């Protein structure tokens, strides 16, 4: 059985945080620890966290990368689970994650997409299939493994301690999910797990300007991590080829992307 720490970075998002914490309180397998990282909020986000009796960590350096890293560093569990303040996990989310990791000691990280819960049907489809689907498919081709998605992510604390030295936590220009994905080392096992069911808000589409900034950060993150990427990609390919030879892919083990 794992000790699960849930990490939630938050900045001026008290209402969404309240909903997220209520969903975590309704989990069939409760978290052993919930760490809310207050990233300099001026609203009542910290008060909402205190109302729910969760642990609060303060990270004054603004940015999701800095806040999530501070939460991972402070967490006491051996399984670190991350979502955002606007995330609403399925009631069986943590139970599914625990069962997945307990069943596979070689697994280092697991992630999945999410459904948009406050947009129209067409916008939700575009968000899931084009926006998130493009992220998962495109970045998997580049990285050699499924990219990590910060709104729906679990990784072992042992993996984080290896990955964190390369994570650009204090670089405000990075796309934090993608930057963390680049820190996965050859030999680590990352799973796309469709059983990790999650809902999120459609805020990425509220502003064309904010969407453009998010996209630019993705490009900047790729450029930042580009040196050495080809060598790392070759090593990933060698490791995966060795795994395929020793354990051929079957219908049941083949990856399933959104």
Automatic annotation (TrEMBL):
The keyword Transferase applies. It comes from the Bacteria. GO terms for molecular function: transferase activity. Coiled coil: none annotated. The keyword Transferase applies. This is Glycosyl transferase family A. The lineage of its organism: Bacteria, Bacillati, Actinomycetota, Actinomycetes, Micrococcales. SUPFAM superfamilies: Nucleotide-diphospho-sugar transferases. Residues 5-139 form the Glycosyltransferase 2-like domain. Keywords: Transferase.
